[in-house]
# Entry
Amino acid sequence: MTMSKPVFDRLGLGLWIGAFLVVLVLVLWSPHTRTVWQAYIDGSEALLARRPLYNIQSEMGYLYAPAFAALYVPMVKLGPHLGGLVWHTIGFAALTFAAMRQVRKLGGGELPWLLSFGLFLALPMALGAIRNGQATILLTGACWLLTLSALEGRRAETFFWASLAIIAKPTAVIMLLLVGALRFRLIPVLVLAVLFVLALPYAFAPAGYLNDQYRDFAGMLTSMAVDNTSHFVPTDFTAPFTKMGLPIPESGATIVRIVMALFTLSAVIWFDRKLERGTAGLAIFLTATFYMCVFNPRVEPNTYAMIAVPAGLAIALLWREERGGMLASVLSVMLLLTGLTGVERHIQDFTYPWFRPIAVTLIAGSLIWWFWARSGNKRARDMMTRDKMMNERPVANG
# Structure
């Protein structure tokens, strides 16, 4: 790290911001190229025109809650150029702010290097979703800020970020459940956020129309969770087995997801209790995004942008705490190469859809193991400190 520190104090952050500026130029040049906006636009226009939001016979198209259609209405009104700039900026700003806030919570020395190096490692994997303007970027930033706000007990911030996360994508409910398990006193705030998101569209459309949309939305979510006959190719943990010609039955996949959900819950509770506050926030969010990427049935390659930045910062923290080493070097290269598999068409075709779940499992599993080992070392240090203090107490001589 001594050799790399002068290079990455600013380089990684500069590349992160520079890549985003290039994306904005591409949006202005050709706003409808490589974008998922059309589904968002269709949802907002359907809401305003009182048309059905969902095609329950198709697994594609508009797949978000009615509140998202309401949120995206201003972007539609601004037009594809200005609306595209605003939408990209909102998601990118939320994710970058979350990373900066997380680094401040980590504390210690070399914070500019920590942020810059982490963003450098994350850029290849995150750039595709940033370029496409996917709601995954906003979801990641909102869920991360929700985690940090909840761990600090900030009720107003927790309500705001929970609401924004649910609006961005329904999968945010996983993060809400974990936060509720960590902070019982915030459960009313989280419930209020969900109710607020459900009620928000009623300010834009009649109740009867929205009741029908919510009914279709619930049916669509249920069908996507159990239907294996669709054209959508999942990139979750089942993808490598499917690629080998050994598809996992839906019942078996559900069991694995439940087991990993229990593991995720246990891990985040352990990290919350045993790690320093700043480190605990990063470990908790990394573990949550690992589950949301690898064990969520509705996963595509760009979904892995969720874990890119927390994994990058965790690897940078590993570099700082261990002063480099083999594990940090290997994980750095793996994260970079995993992101770069989407750059060249032939490599992308070869690695789709099996490679990313395997690579992310190895990266996240190693980092979770390191956080667990670090929490054990902290417990040992705390016991040694307590014993030392007890031994240093004044002794009364009779």
